[in-house]
Write a structure and sequence with these properties.
The radius of gyration is 15 Å and the shape is globular. The protein has one domain. The protein contains six helices and six strands, in the order E-H-E-H-E-H-H-E-H-E-H-E. It is an alpha/beta fold. It has a four-stranded parallel sheet with strand order 3-4-5-6. A two-stranded parallel sheet has the order 1-2.
Length: about 120
């Protein structure tokens, strides 16, 4: 058992290959996410900010994103159907969100409902 780790970095792949063993390196973010149970964002490259979230979700086995750099807005990720985990950021979506991640124009989310879908690690 254990995790199979794939990585993509638009600038640091060659350096990483020299220090990370047991990691498969991919040619782009979508190939990296293909079939993944979870995706962890550990860098803030502009390429990661511009991902097509629909395409990303479609290639993943399970739409779980752990965003260690706060690249995305929680309400955007929830709206696209991701289980979204972030670090040190308050939960305050700009649009009302239902439990399934769809906008609800009649009422806003409660903190408890959002926490069912998202984890915030505060330092």
């Amino acid at each position: 058992m254990g995790a199979k780790v794939r990585a993509y970095d638009p600038a640091g792949v060659e350096q990483a290959k020299g220090v990370l063993s047991g990691v498969s390196f991919c040619e782009n973010a979508y190939k990296c996410a293909e079939g993944a149970d979870a995706l962890v964002i550990v860098t803030e490259w502009e390429q990661f900010r511009a991902l097509d979230l629909g395409r990303l979700k479609a290639v993943m086995s399970s739409p779980v994103v752990v965003d260690l750099r706060n690249v995305y807005r929680p309400d955007d990720m929830l709206k696209h159907g991701f289980a979204y985990h972030t670090v040190g950021r308050a939960i305050s979506p700009s649009k009302p969100i239902t439990r399934r991640g769809e906008p609800d124009p009649k009422k806003g989310p409660t903190r408890a409902k959002l926490e069912d879908q998202m984890t915030v690690f505060e330092s």
